[in-house]
Structure formats: C-alpha cells, structure tokens
Amino acid sequence: MTVCEAPGKVYLFGEHAVVYGEPAVPAAIERRATVTAEPRSDDHVRVEAEDLSLDGFTVEYTGGTGDRPDVDVPTPLVEAAMGYVDAAVEQARDAADAPDAGFDITVESDIPLGAGLGSSAAVVVAGIDAATRALGEPLDRRELADRAYRAEYEVQDGQASRADTFCSTMGGAVRVEGDDCERIEAPNLPFVVGFDGGAGDTGELVAGVGELREEYEFAADTVESIGDLVRTGEALLEDAVPAGDAAAGAEPSPELLAELGELMDFNHGLLAALGVSARSLDAMVWAARDAGAHGAKLTGAGGGGCIVALDASDATETALSFTQGCEEAFRAELATEGVRVVEP
Ligand code: MEV
C-alpha cells in the first residue's frame, strides 16, 4: 500500500490569463489530498472517495477508462472526481509501462472540490505519485508534474495550464508562463480563504473568457493587463526575497503586504471584468477589504468557490465567518513542501 499526499493552492495572481501564455503566481497551501494505491491481481480499478465535499462513494470498474460506475451520488460530481482518478491511473500505467495494472485507490481530501483551491490537481498529482510508486516506478518531480498536467489537460478538454499541477507537485510559490515553470522564493504570506460552499465549472468559465477575448480587443487587453500586473507582483516578491535568499519563508514587511494587496484588488477587478466573479465572491472580497485585509481576490476559475485575502490579524477571518454567503473561513499556511510520500 502506497500513500502520497499533495497540497492545494491559491492564486496570488494570474489565473485565466495563464491559459493564454501570460505568467501566473500560485502558492501551495496546507490543505491536502491523500491518495492510497494498492496494486491488484486483476486489471480492475476500485475507487473509494471520502471528504470530497460530496457524499463518499465506492466504485469498481474494469481497466477500460470508458466504463462509468453505477453509484448513488450525483453523476456530474462522481464523473468529475472519477475523470481525474481515471486520468491519473492511465498516466501511471503509461509511465510504468503496465497497461493492465489494476489498483484499489482511496482518495481523501480536505480541499473543497472545484472551489479554486486546486483539488483536482492535488488528486491527480498524489494519484500518479502513489500509483507509480506502488508499481515500483517512482517518477522524478518534473516528470510527475508533466504527467499530472497531461492528465488535467485531457480531462479539461485542453483547457488547462501547468500552474495548478506544477504548484501542487513542487509546493511553495511558483511562477508559470506557458511551459516554463519554476519555484520562486516567497515570504510567509498571511493567506485567509473564504469559501462560499459552491463551485464553478472551470471548463465553462475558461471558455467564456476565451470567447470574450476573441470578440473584444479590450477583453484581450484585459488578459494582457493581468500579465503586466503579475510581472509587477513578481518583481515585488523578487525584491523582497532574492532567489536563493535565506529570507524565504520569513515574515513579509507591511510595505510588501500593502503593495501585493493592491495588486490582488486590481487582479480581482480585471477578473470580474472578464465575467468570472460571482455575487458571493464579490461579497467576500468586500467583507475582507472592509475588515482591513491588505487585498482580496477570487482564486482559481471563479464562478463560485473561494476568495483569498492577505491579513496577518484575525480580523478578515472573523469578518468572513460572519459574512452572508461565506460557508467557511480559514487561515491557509503556505505549504513549502509539495507532494510527499506518507507510506512508501
Ligand atoms: C483554474 O484553477 C485556473 C485557470 O487559470 C485554468 C488553468 O490555469 O488551468 C482558470
């Protein structure tokens, strides 16, 4: 039995624009998906899922990834979860050159599904890592991140960047621009997350931005402006913690927090202009700002799900917990370690 766990993430800046080659800076957070893989003697895959923000379910199906299980929970949620597990198993089989390998897979996660915290990427990264290790063919991190990206790309019909999967694999803060992915040094940013209890449809939201971008030059300019904003944010981080500096993980200065927060506010406005915010997300963003957060924005695809704010005090978390439409508010520590083995 092999157990691996991978972190979720928040976007400091750059979601959606990253799909069109602009840079983005996501940061891994200490909320993890844990995947257990136990090889079977046949080619079946049995999946047991718990805590995926849906009623737990157990399904068993044969090796063919076209099979769909017969279970008593809402089909779209099961299909979403199963699609990612299927794709992870396929990548593991391919990497280990074991096309008929069967597994008992268990997924446990404390990352809300589809809410902008990278739940699917964490499941895919931990799943490929656990399954390849269980087959005696562990992957190096770069290949693991690449295969996890390919799995997401396939499930999301080609509408995925490398940002979520690279961040979940490597941990810490990362910079992604097209195929260029690297870890960057970052101080210990005081993230506070507000969750509206819902989820957005990433595929639909990404397609919506794509259509706007095609239709209006000013929408294309908005996407480019997000890229400019990300470059400005990166420069701030780089000045605060030069590459390789021991100050990585140190407490950020009030000036840095104020400047990053201002860019986050700006980023939220541009995402709202692109039509990917929601009333609940706007309400949480404003509650955070009113409570004195340095800045706040939606994180991930939008449409519903989570916002992220910067505030080292308790004020934002408290305000969010009293905000109508906010189901859960929590502080999210930066996860400096990416995917890790819990049981080899
Ligand atoms: C979703 O978490 C982030 C998007 O930028 C899509 C992607 O990068 O794959 C909206």
Structure description:
It is a single chain. The chain is an alpha+beta fold and 344 residues long. It has 2 domains: 2-184, Ribosomal Protein S5, domain 2, CATH 3.30.230.10; 191-332, GHMP kinase, C-terminal domain (Alpha-Beta Plaits, 2-Layer Sandwich), CATH 3.30.70.890. 40% of the residues lie in helices and 23% in strands. It has 9 helices and 12 strands. A 6-stranded mixed beta sheet has the order 4-3-5-2-1-12. α1 runs antiparallel to α3. Mean pLDDT is 90; it is low at 62-66. The chain binds (R)-mevalonate. It comes from Halorubrum salipaludis. Keywords: ATP-binding, Cytoplasm, Isoprene biosynthesis, Kinase, Lipid biosynthesis, Lipid metabolism, Magnesium, Nucleotide-binding, Transferase.
- SSE sequence, one letter per element: EEEEHEHHHEEEHHHHEEHEE
Number of domains: 2
Residue windows where pLDDT falls under 50 for at least 5 positions: 62-66
Helix content: 25-40%
Q: What Rg, in angstroms, do the CA atoms define? A: 19 Å
Q: Mind summarizing the main beta sheet?
A: 6 strands, mixed
Bulk shape: globular
CATH architecture of the largest domain: 2-Layer Sandwich
- Structural class category: alpha+beta
What's the total count of β strands? Answer: 12
Number of helices: 9
Q: What small molecules does the structure contain?
A: (R)-mevalonate
How large a portion of the residues is in β-strands, by DSSP E?
15-25%
Broad CATH class of the largest domain: Alpha Beta
CATH domain fold name of the largest domain: Ribosomal Protein S5, domain 2
Instruction: Give the mean pLDDT.
Output: 90
